[in-house]
């Protein structure tokens, strides 16, 4: 999936510098949450982005967009899951998408996510893995 420079800029802005006590960083996960998001009121979906370190370069592992699903007892579940390491794009209620449809979905998601980030709707947590 082609990642825009804008999305890369957002990610590296939020990552900042790795903690000094970590000797070798294997991966980093960024959690983007709209603290007011709920099944009843809606809001901006939580997003998890994970990067892995390979040969001293950062590579996308996955991006997962969660939403509340279910009527009586809604639960937070994966709505969109894009995996570079496993090479698939998944959409809830549809399943795995063909390459072209997956690319189109990712481009739309990416554009929306960048806009939401610019609107400062997210609280962001960065988790470093060694």
In the predicted model, the low-confidence regions spanning at least 5 consecutive residues are none
CATH-assigned fold name: Nuclear Transport Factor 2, Chain: A
Termini separation comes to: 26 Å
SS element count, helices: 2
CATH class annotation: Alpha Beta
Strand order of the largest sheet: 6-5-4-3-2-1-7
Global mean pLDDT: 94
Count of separate structural domains: 1
What fraction of the residues are assigned to beta strands by DSSP?
A: 35-45%
Class based on secondary structure composition and strand pairing: alpha+beta
CATH superfamily: Protein of unknown function DUF2787
Protein name: DUF2787 domain-containing protein
Pfam families: DUF2787
Q: Any overview of this molecule?
A:
It comes from Mangrovibacter phragmitis. This is DUF2787 domain-containing protein. Pfam families: DUF2787 (PF10980). InterPro entries: DUF2787. With 130 residues, the protein is an alpha+beta fold. It has a single domain (5-129), classed as Nuclear Transport Factor 2, Chain: A (Roll), CATH 3.10.450. It is 24% helix and 38% strand. The chain is built from two helices and seven strands. Strands 6-5-4-3-2-1-7 form a seven-stranded antiparallel beta sheet, with helices on one face. The chain is globular, with a radius of gyration of 15 Å. The two termini are 26 Å apart.
């Amino acid at each position: 999936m082609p990642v825009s420079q804008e999305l890369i800029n957002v990610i590296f802005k939020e990552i900042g510098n790795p903690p000094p006590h970590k000797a070798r960083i294997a991966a980093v996960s960024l959690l983007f949450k709209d603290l007011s998001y709920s099944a009843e009121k809606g809001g901006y979906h939580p997003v998890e982005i994970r990067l892995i370190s390979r040969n001293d370069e950062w590579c996308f592992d996955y991006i997962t967009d969660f939403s509340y699903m279910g009527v009586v007892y809604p639960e937070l579940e994966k709505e969109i899951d894009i995996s570079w390491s496993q090479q698939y794009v998944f959409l809830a209620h549809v399943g795995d998408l063909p390459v072209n449809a997956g690319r189109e979905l990712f481009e739309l998601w990416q554009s929306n996510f960048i806009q939401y980030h610019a609107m400062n709707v997210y609280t962001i947590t960065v988790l470093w893995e060694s």
